Amino acid sequence: MTTLETSSFTNQPRRLGSMLGPLLGLCLLIYFAYHIFQGERGFFAWMRLQKKIAEDEITLSTLQSQREILERQVHLLRPDNLDPDMLEERARLILNFARPDEVIIYNEGLEASEPSQGKS
Question: What are the TM regions of this chain, as residue ranges (predicted)?
Answer without folding.
Answer: 20-37
